[in-house]
Structures are given as C-alpha cells and as structure tokens.
Records
---
Amino acid sequence: MSAGPTRPRIVVATRNTGKAREIARILDCYDVISLAEFPAVEFPEEGGDYFENARIKASVAARAIGCVCVADDSGLEVDALDGAPGAYSARYGGAGLDDRGRLEALLEALADFPEPRRARFFCASAVASPDGRSEVAQGVCVGRLLLQARGDDGFGYDPIFSPQGESRVMAELGRDEKDALSHRGRAFRALEASIANLVRA
Ligand code: ITT
C-alpha cells in the first residue's frame, strides 16, 4: 500500500460497502473517501446501460460534493439466463432481498442447468470532476457458477462464482487475489490514467 499524507482525495460514489472497500484497495494511491460521509447525495433511478449508470453516479456525486468522484456499475451475466441478471444484479429476485436472498434466488433459477454454468462479471468504471468532465473504462472476469455457496469473503454473488482457472470461488480468494483478477480490479486499473488526469487538472 502506497500510504502517505499527500495522497490526493477522491470520493467513491457507491452505497455498496463491499464495492467501496474494493475500490479503495485498488486505488490505494488515493485517499478514497466513502460516500457514507455525504448522506445527502442522491442518485437518479438507474437504466439498463452499465456505462451510462456508472457515469451518472460519478457525475452526480462530483457535482454535489465538489471533488473528483469514481463509481462503478457492475453485474453478473449468466449464459444460461441469456445474460441476466446483468445490470439488474443488485435487484435480482425482487425488492427487499439482501445479498444472500438474491444469491438464493439465482441458485433456484440455475438448479436445472447442467455444468458448466458459464457466467461473467462485468464492471464499467467511471471518474468525473465537478466541472462536468468524465471518463469510463471496463473490466470483465469470466468463470462459472457453483450450486453451493462457499467462503466468507467478498460480497454479492462471490460465494458461487469461480473465476476461470480457479477451483476456488471469489469468496475464498484473498483480497489481493480477487483484486488482481476481478472485473472491478481490471476496470479501475484501466481507468487509472483518466483519474490521474482529472485529479491533476
Ligand atoms: P451502487 O449503485 O450504490 O454502487 P449497487 O450494489 O446497487 O451499488 P450495481 O447497481 O452496480 O451497484 O449492482 C451491482 C451488483 O452486482 C451488486 O449489488 C452485486 O449483486 C453484483 N456484483 C457486482 N460486483 C460483484 C462482485 O465483485 N462480487 C459479487 N457480486 C458482485
């Protein structure tokens, strides 16, 4: 970790604490502040496009807070479900479910599909400045879904997603291991030059 008192501050515009933790780790050359410190910031209802959603979250927060903000819009795309739940992953199974409830709803939908249940995580990352500039990037992690949840780390669908070339699921990987191969790690590393440009400007 490249910690130090001079790291530039940016805000991570997400209400998902699992995501926020990961983005802070990946962008460890910045002092990444949580949106929990800005409870009044509100996002409009999300549409179906990852890039547009990520850009809106970062831009709305940047304008409201007055500093450079990053955000992501991400989801799990399951081949057997024609790419669902995709950008609707946070709402899969209906309103009122938590991570565990959504995961169980997905396991139910997958029960009759044979191995390998191919899937991929997709992440659109975005950075925005208060003066209205923004950039996006993307990252993908391909793998397969298991029918039994395993592991304690991570969040969301991590207990059933096994990345290609791994026998473990995401929730069993070390944090650095997840960041090295995850959709989010790839998407934010691909955004690093754009973040540096907006922070310097
Ligand atoms: P914000 O909009 O506040 O950022 P959100 O959780 O609603 O939070 P998304 O709309 O981007 O964000 O939904 C992403 C969902 O996809 C997330 O809630 C998880 O269910 C799933 N997901 C994304 N990345 C994941 C990961 O690394 N591990 C497990 N599940 C993930």
---
Amino acid sequence: MIVMKFGGTSVQDAPAITRVAEIVAGRLKQQPTVVVSAFARVTDTLLATARAAGSGDGGRALQLSRELRERHYNVAGELLGTGLFTHFHSELEQDFDALDELLRGIAAVGELTPRTSDLVVSYGERLSSKIVHAAFLACGLPARLVDARQCIVTDATHTRAVPQVDETNEQLQRRLQPALAAGTVPVLGGFIGATRAGVTTTIGRGGSDFSAALVGAGLGAERIEIWTDVDGMMTTDPALCPDAHRIRQISFEEAAELSYFGAKVLHPATVVPAIQKNIPVYILNSRNPECEGTRITARGARCRNVFKAIGAKKRITIVDVVATRMLMAHGFLRSIFEVFDRHRCPVDVVSTSEVSVSLTVDSNEAIPAVAADLAALGDVKYEGRKAIVCLVGDNLRGTPGIAARTFNTLGDINVRMISQGASEINLTFVIDEDDVPEAVRRLHAAFFADLDPEVFA
Ligand code: ASP
Ligand code: MG
C-alpha cells in the first residue's frame, strides 16, 4: 500500500479536489490511503476565530465561522452538484452548527484553553476529509471516510500533542487494514488525533505530513507521497538563479540541512517515522502530477556532484564578542550562550577563536537587549543585513579541496564567517545580504554545471 498526503493548496477549491481525485484514481492498484490537510488557510482562520471567541468577541468569531461555512458549502456544492449536495449539506451543517455553539461557549467564558483551541482547529481537517471523501464517491472512487481521531493516539499536550506510536499502530491496523482489504481507499484528516480518553488533539502546525508518515510507518507502506504545489526540492531558489534544477533524489540528512533555508516544501523532522522504517518519501506536485518530484530516502543515492543544493537565508545579524581578558578562562562560551538562552534567541552559525566569538541570529528586536547583556562579557558589536549561505551534500565527506574551490569561486565577495558543520555534509558561510544573488549564481555555475542525471532533472 501507499500513503498519499494532499496539503492545503492541493485541496484549496473544487478544481483542486477534482485533480486530487484524478491522481488517486490513477494509483488505485497501489492501494492508497489518503491523508488530507484542511483547505488552504483554514487552520489560520480557525485559530483567529478561536482567539476572537476567547477574547470575548463572539460576533467576530461567528462572522469568521460564517465565511468558513460559506466556503465549504460552495466547494462541496461545486464538487457534488445539486442532487448529491442536498443530501450531504445537512452533514456539513451539523458540523458548523456544533462549531458555532462551541464558539459561543468560548465567548461566554471569555477564555480559550489549548484543549478548546484544538477542538476548534480540528474542524479544518474533519471538514476537508469529509468533502474530499464525498467528492471521491461522486466520481466513482471506492472511498471510505475514517476519523483520524480514532487512529492517531496522542498524549494530552494540546496544540503539539505527541503521538503514542504503539497504540497508534494498533489503531491504524484495526481501522485501516479492513478498509484496504475491502479494496476501498481510506480518507482521513491529517494533523488531528485524540488522547486515549478520546479528547481531540492536534500534533503541531504543518502536522499533516507527520500524520502521513505515521500512517505509512504503521501500515508498512511502500512509499509516502507528499503532494504539494511545487515540483520538488531544487538545487537552489529559482528566484535567485534561473538555472536551478529539480533534485530527483536526496538523503534525509541533506533534506534536513536544507529545511532551514526556506525549503518550505516539507519539514523533514515530520517524516522521521517513515525514514526510520526505510520508507521513501516523495514530494510531488498536484498541479503537475506527471513530474516525478523529489525522492527522500534514509541513505542517499550515489552522486557525481559534490553538492545537492545551495541554500541562502537573509535577514541575519552577526554578533561579535571580543574579550581579551577572558583569554584562557573557561566558562566563557557558556556565559555567552546563557545570554542568548535568557532572551530566547536561537543561534545558528558560530565561529570562535581564542579571544572572540561570532554568532548569527535571525534579525529581531531582542538583539539590542542581548548585546547589552553580552557587554558584561566583552566588547560587543552587531551588524544586520547579513545572509547565511549553505552548500549541502553527502559527498562533502571525504572530498578534499572543496573549501578552496568554494572560496575561490566566491572571488572578491567578502566572507564574514565560515563553518563546516558537524554533520560533515554542509559548508556554511556568512556574507552581506546584497551579495547573495551573485554568490549563489557563481557557486551554482561552478558546482552544478555538469549534473549527474541520476540525481538531478
Ligand atoms: N492544517 C494544518 C496546518 O495548517 C496541518 C497541515 O496542513 O499540515 O498547520
Ligand atoms: Mg504543510
């Protein structure tokens, strides 16, 4: 069997859902289980709705809910046609009436708990899965609706509940296996689950990928397909470099390194359950289903090129701390990191010498306060408008001369910090934000001119 997960943009309206039905119909032989996100932007709207109710603004909450109701009715109506929709309508109506009652209750109390927030937000995936299921039936697909809350068993950490793997696997077997054996396509919402006691939970934003990985791992899927609205992962941002190519195969570790650089396609941490079981994960485009996408596997394929991709992240600030008087003293780094920790300011790249430390952080308002605290430890300077550029590839391990080639290629571009990551698969440096397009173009021309056709499209 396989798992096919469709993200919010892949189910954003009736034409998108029709495309999904066609894609699934083309894979019936492979026994798909379908996991869907809420329609695009619905989770955000539900959160805003819940917050409005929590602040006592019931009017605003009900207004937002009315808009959601209209959108879901319209999509379902368009997909099902008048005849079928008349029948289905009352089911959606019940859900929205229950949601409105819940919102009135929250507004009356004027307090939103994480538990209630999860219940409100769960309507996104509950509704999308119902509508997708109805649409499948309407076009003759033998689908079966499954309530994800009966499959994904979590703890009670609301808004980021932790799935309990053994119990979840047991429920998945129990609820999905018979449906698959009967030749039907189970359809369930991602992102939501329930505690053992049956209280609705959510497993963290973007959690539908995680749901898909859990389902795939629990049922021993041959593959997991994450359907989105891009062709896959690219060698670099095509907006920076029009020569960017699609990556056909990448290792999990490489994908994880790149995820930091705005590869918004998928957060690799969410597919760990699949990778641990050696199940390949594919990124595919529901607007361009012919494209073979990007395949992510535990161990990467052999590749002629040193690197798989170049990532770049702007809006970075460098913080330099120089402390001659700390020469040879221990505990210096710890005192520095404690300051960042106190301000909840995550540090990305670090390079040190005997008397100085340079660190990068995402530009944010906390930096002046951080710098003021650091001043107790040494002379502090900080400078914004910097960017992190990162070259990623398994082959960096054990290929000599790459650093020299990289910095030769950069030529006259001023490099402010360098770090070769502990993972041994990334070479990272910091430059001025304005130099990013030129740096990426030069590096891409140097390292991606002659591409291994097995690995790049
Ligand atoms: N709908 C949820 C969210 O927007 C989960 C998902 O789409 O992955 O975060
Ligand atoms: Mg997503």
